[in-house]
Design goal:
Length: 323
């Protein structure tokens, strides 16, 4: 029997590409050039599976076709707000993602940003590299202590819980969470956490707020001027979720006028384009979407896609089916 034809939209770790090529009739993107929307639509008409990732915007328009050949979009990544789920549903397509395997590494990056912005590490590094460091002094780049402070976690799924583990057990932080549904008392008890009923209730209590909710239309600009105004004037905002969750114009104003203490961002609205207003904010640390960027996580994500595809084409339920 012919092997299913699968298209991988970006370069993946070599070990995963090798196994994919063995198991499937796989076309790899050796040039690692992102596909256009037209190319993605064409791919869905000529491959049995398309393996997209966060850089592939598969909007409603991309699904505008009579009948796709592809029956599954096996996404490389946990977030899938770049895929129009109505469009996929309209063609009865299966969509899978890669949860769990990147939770620890993404929480590590959230903690990295939190520490960097609180301790002014970005400013310090820029100063040093610019040859402007004049030496130790008691008042130089004085930051904010992290240990023992209150951390608000918005979205208490797997990554949010890993963040809570690090912050509570590593830094003795008090944890307050906000989540769409009620979190079970057992889970809250692991981090001695409390659940706020709303974002309005959470924001004013926190010294740090870290976002771990899904992106997409439902959470677009969840953090807007009104929410930023509810934060303590010296509090810090961390985002490793999706760029669209924050209204970046509102954030740049809050940073510029110092109505909050600072922010750490790993994701951006419309990335890799960066809103120029953000670039001038000294009290902002930015990373280029590195949340899952470890050898271990990126390989595990690839193998998780492979498992999902193997199950799907063998007629079994893929473990990470989201639609
Ligand atoms: C994810 O998994 O959603 C990351 O943001 C990109 O892989």
């Amino acid at each position: 029997m012919a092997k299913p034809k699968v298209l991988v939209t970006r370069r993946w770790p070599a070990a995963v590409e090798a196994q994919l090529s063995e198991a499937f009739d796989a076309v790899l993107n050796t040039g690692d050039k992102p596909l256009t929307e037209d190319e993605l639509r064409a791919a869905m008409t000529s491959y049995d599976a398309v393996l997209p990732t966060v850089t592939d915007k598969i909007s409603a328009k991309a699904f505008d076709m009579a009948k796709p050949q592809a029956r599954i979009l096996a996404n490389y990544g946990v977030g899938y707000s770049h895929i129009d789920m109505h469009g996929a549903a309209g063609h009865g397509m299966t969509v899978t993602n890669t949860p769990d395997v990147l939770s620890e590494c993404t929480a590590d990056i959230a903690m990295t940003l939190l520490l960097m912005v609180a301790r002014r590490a970005g400013e310090g590094e820029r100063e040093l590299r610019a040859g402007e460091w004049t030496g130790w002094r008691p008042t130089h780049l004085v930051g904010t202590k992290v240990s023992g402070k209150t951390l608000g976690i918005v979205g208490f799924g797997r990554i949010g819980q890993e963040m809570a583990r690090r912050a509570h057990h590593g830094f003795g932080m008090k944890i307050v969470v906000q989540n769409r549904s009620r979190v079970s008392p057992d889970i809250l008890a692991r981090y001695n956490a409390t659940q706020a009923d709303s974002l309005e209730e959470l924001m004013p209590q926190c010294d740090f707020v870290s976002l771990h909710c899904p992106g997409g239309a439902a959470n677009r600009h969840l953090i807007n001027t009104r929410m930023l105004n509810l934060m303590k004037p010296d509090a810090f905002l961390i985002n490793t979720a999706r760029g669209e969750v924050i209204d970046e114009l509102a954030l740049s104003r809050a940073l510029w006028f110092e109505t909050i203490g600072g922010a750490g961002l790993d994701v951006f609205d419309g990335e890799p384009r960066i809103n120029p207003d953000l670039l001038d904010c000294e009290n902002l640390v930015m990373l280029p979407h590195l949340g899952s960027a470890t050898r271990e996580a990126r390989e595990a994500m690839g193998f998780r896609v492979l498992d999902n595809l193997t199950d799907f084409f063998a007629g079994r339920e893929p473990r990470d089916r989201v639609m």
